[in-house]
Design goal:
It is a lipid-anchor. The protein has about 170 residues and is of the alpha+beta class. It is built from 6 helices and 4 strands, in the order H-E-H-H-E-H-H-E-E-H. Helix 1 runs parallel beside helix 4. The radius of gyration is 18 Å and the shape is globular.
Length: about 170
């Protein structure tokens, strides 16, 4: 009787822990989404919606990054299967702070010569007009640092597309 009770208690605790984690993950994703949409609104582009499939992929990859404690883009991103913004911090970073850091690249953006550059990739991904959905994942490493992954559907960049997909306004 004692062992069954302990096993049942462990099962209940595990289920409660999962629910709390899932609720926190959803809350974090919604915080990142809200910040993205606030910035997108400033640039006159439509809001994004969270996508369960992209959330799962982003969460899984955030957990891989946290386990390895190495910040690098995924093979899916490198192969052009998805857009991907990454963030790392030595503390538990709030979602708005992550989005603010990505958006801060606007200061490096050349409004005279619009287009993608390596110093503005996070910013341009945030305000890319044709993007409709995103997914967000966050995981903590054993040292307490956090890894955040934001994924969007495939972003196809073709010659001349910047004019229609990057609605960059002076704000």
């Amino acid at each position: 009787m004692g062992c069954k009770f302990i096993v049942a208690c462990c099962h209940i605790l595990r289920q409660c822990s999962r629910r709390i984690h899932n609720r926190a993950s959803k809350q974090f994703a919604e915080e990142v989404l809200k910040a993205h949409n606030d910035y997108r609104k400033k640039h006159g582009v439509p809001p994004l919606k969270l996508c369960k499939k992209l959330n799962r992929g982003a969460q899984q990859y955030a957990e891989e990054l946290a386990a390895s404690r190495v910040l690098k883009h995924s093979s899916e991103s490198a192969n052009g299967k998805c857009g991907e913004n990454l963030a790392w911090a030595s503390y538990d970073q709030p979602g708005k702070d992550v989005a603010d850091r990505w958006y801060s690249e606007i200061k490096n953006y050349s409004f005279q010569h619009p287009g993608f550059s390596s110093g503005t990739g996070h910013f341009t991904a945030m305000v890319w007009k044709s993007t409709k959905k995103m997914g967000v994942g966050k995981a903590s490493a054993s040292d307490g640092s956090t890894f955040v992954v934001a994924r969007t559907g495939r972003i196809l960049v073709k010659r001349g597309q910047n004019k229609t997909n990057l609605v960059i306004t002076f704000i």
